[in-house]
Amino acid sequence: MKKKVKKEGNVVYLPNLKDRYLEVGLDHLKTQHFKEAIESLQKAKELNEEHEHGEIDMALAIALYESRRYEEAKEICRDLLHKGVGDYFDIVDLYLMSLIQLKEHKEIESVIKMLLEEKEVPPEKAEHFQKLLQFSERMADSTSSENDERLLEEEVEAVQGLAEKSLEEQTLFIAQLADRNIHPYMKELMGFLASESSHPFLQTMVLNTLKEHGVEKEVVIKKLDMESKEIPAELPEAFSTPFFTGLSEKLEEAFSQDSPTLYEQAMDIVKRHTFLYYPFSLLDGDIDLAAAAYQTLMQDYYGEMPSIDEAAEQYRVNTPELEAGISLLRGLEEISLPIL
Asked: Where are the TPR-type repeats located (predicted)?
């Protein structure tokens, strides 16, 4: 039996092309290459317009969320919930995460209250939804001075126990500090930065918050076996340092002409690592060593059997140092980023 070939105008779609785009999109999603994942998944979605396919839409929504395209992710989740396609609570989780980023606290309240009223929330999710509901109610109900005072007292209590909270609760709380008065709990935030047990991603979030608030007091930062004293207001942006700029240029020279996609994917990883490491520089700020390490790492990811000796010679770096650098980058890839 011959497979049907879909044809639109002069464009012929091969059988199973949708499945191939989906497979490629999911592979990109797993390796956190979100831009490429979006492109492939959108193509799979276009080829699947006649049928509902929750897996494509959910994967696309995740990729959009990770790319900070929260409004688009929210709309896809809302559509899936309306149609009843896909895993209901996985979609609800992503929908709520998008709403949090968009600060649509009233909608968060509405969704969670509806879930709790239906009494169909799995026991393992009930407590999380209750805490999220309480938080959103506080954020949405802070118009009067009395509410502001109460909110401040509750936030001070919350930040005092920040280290004991789960990663998702820490992320949620820190993300909201950009719009709050942080001075009443500076002591606790400084302690969070100075604790080696704090998640490095969240430490960067706190440090950026202090920088955005113009904090000129010196803080101690301990992360990833490093320590430094910094004044947040005087720190450069993570992605505008001479090291980051120089490394970007080196990788562009190495990849962009022959493999622009590989360059974009390499920069996705560099940005992730830079954010984790901030305010420190990877590999002691050695741009050539970092470029050699990332080039070798990317070639290995794509099965190109890279030669460490050749990379060391190309960038004029020491081979043992390059091996150590590659090992460091692989270790950073193992650090899971907090998700709500």
From this structure: 18-51
